[in-house]
Design a protein that fits this description.
single chain, alpha+beta, 5-stranded antiparallel β-sheet, 3-stranded parallel β-sheet, 16 helices, 15 strands, flat, P-loop_NTPase
């Protein structure tokens, strides 16, 4: 090599580099898959402690405080909702706590090390933070007993000469007023609010405290849904439509007077049932039971035809639950004249679509088994024949099995989901269920 010139070296030899591995094998996981760790640069938002104070301490909370949603990150005692104040209120031992100058310096120290700042620069950042948020003064400690809607005004006050009031001071100050006798006008207002059946407006000039506890009249404000009495200020800013939407609530006595005759006692549905009645339910299990009760009540036993499911798994005990699944094989019994509903799209051109209802006009049997059902669909004049066309397959012990049924179910009861788009011309009974489920339907009623 000593006799080679640099030119001859690069002409005669190939220069290569040995790459370092960019990953390290850690081991295997529970499924015997190889696990590797790879070093890489992770970029994240590193906010300035002084100029972006809330964002800085928000990141600090995210790093050390476990929470499932944003509401759990802010304690109830932190009514202003400031993240710096949240760190100050954290208990001892919490890494995100910032209740002393020493703890603040520790957090700032980590920031300055990441950004290679000098000691004097670090101290300057600490001083900037203390200028905005003095560590030795925690406004929450002095107003903890004051209602949340008054705390912000107390914290924003710069008058150090007035002592901060607490709840006991407020009670003492207004003791005489609390015990004072009401005027005739006040008694009238309280009597009206006590027996309120509509919207009551309290008039008064500005600064008469007509509205104290309601900081917003937005429709989404939760107090509007929960309050027994609602007082609205600045009604001139609201339209009549908005007021009706937000504030008008039907009283229970009005509901009872209008709908008392429409409510049936539990267990009495079938007493009011007729052949033209449709029962709307919350759950499929309810519709199966109501349909079985309806066909048994409307037709004598000799006219009712059993519809067994067709399957090649009748001799396999392990598959009997699958064979008899009521959500698949819904049409167990049928009779000529019974009301049925399609649960699949069969022929759109002939109105044989999912959800359409009709009346059974004929039941065709072959070799002692029902092979087809003829129905007259609502709004159609031509009968439509339905055959077993709903198939499902499964595998068991190396063999393939099938089950087959009619794409029909009795139409005396149906779920709210099934009733979407349906036109029901006769009586309807709504069963909301024992579990308190609430149904919401938009029905179009015709006077004709």
């Amino acid at each position: 090599m000593e006799e080679l010139t640099l030119y001859q070296y690069f002409r005669s030899y190939e220069v290569t580099t040995e790459k370092r591995p960019n990953h390290i094998r850690v081991g295997t996981d529970g499924f015997n898959n190889a696990v590797y760790a790879r070093k890489s640069v992770v970029r994240y938002s590193d906010y300035h402690p002084a100029y972006q104070c809330d964002a800085f301490f928000y990141n600090l909370l995210l790093e050390y405080v476990p929470f499932r949603n944003e509401e759990e990150l802010i304690q109830l005692s932190n009514s202003p909702g400031q993240y710096f104040l949240e760190c100050a209120l954290r208990p001892e031992g919490c890494p995100a706590r910032c209740n002393t100058v020493e703890e603040l310096e520790q957090h700032v120290q980590l920031y300055t090390e990441r950004h290679f700042l000098k000691d004097e620069q670090r101290q300057h950042v600490v001083d900037l933070v203390l200028t905005q948020h003095p560590i030795d003064v925690h406004p929450i400690d002095s107003v903890a007993d004051i209602p949340a809607h008054l705390q912000r005004a107390a914290q924003d006050s710069d008058d150090d000469e007035d002592p901060m009031l607490n709840m006991s001071d407020l009670r003492a100050e207004f003791q005489d007023m609390d015990g004072a006798e009401l005027s005739d006008e006040q008694r009238t207002v309280f009597a009206a609010l006590k027996d309120a059946t509509g919207l009551h407006l309290l008039e008064g000039v500005p600064d008469t405290c007509k509205l104290t506890h309601l900081p917003s009249t937005h429709p989404a404000f939760k107090a509007l849904l929960a309050a027994d009495v609602i007082i609205v200020d600045e009604c001139s800013m609201l339209t009549s439509y908005t007021l009706d939407t937000m504030l008008y609530r039907v009283q229970q006595e009005s509901i009872d007077a209008a709908l008392a005759d429409c409510v049936l006692a539990p267990g009495t549905v079938m007493q009011h049932f007729t052949a033209d009645t449709t029962i709307l339910c919350c759950h499929v299990e309810q519709t199966i039971q109501y349909n079985a009760d309806a066909i048994a009540m409307l037709y004598p036993a000799p006219e009712i035809v059993d519809i067994p499911v067709h399957t090649n798994a009748q001799d396999v005990p392990e598959l009997q639950k699958w064979v008899n699944d009521s959500t698949f094989h819904a049409l167990r019994k049928v009779a000529v004249g019974a009301k049925v509903i399609l649960n699949y799209n069969l022929d759109i051109a002939q109105r044989a679509a999912n959800g359409n209802t009709g009346i059974v006009t004929d039941i065709i049997t072959k070799n002692g088994s029902v092979s087809a059902i003829t129905i007259l669909l609502d709004g159609s004049t031509k009968p439509f024949t339905v055959r077993r066309s709903s198939y499902q397959y499964t595998h068991w012990n190396g063999r393939s099995y099938f089950r087959c049924t009619f794409p029909l179910l009795l139409g005396y009861a149906m779920t709210g989901h099934r009733s979407q788009g349906a036109t029901i011309a006769h009586d309807v009974i709504v069963d909301v269920g024992e579990d308190g489920a609430v149904l919401g339907w938009c029905m179009s009623c015709s006077a004709g």
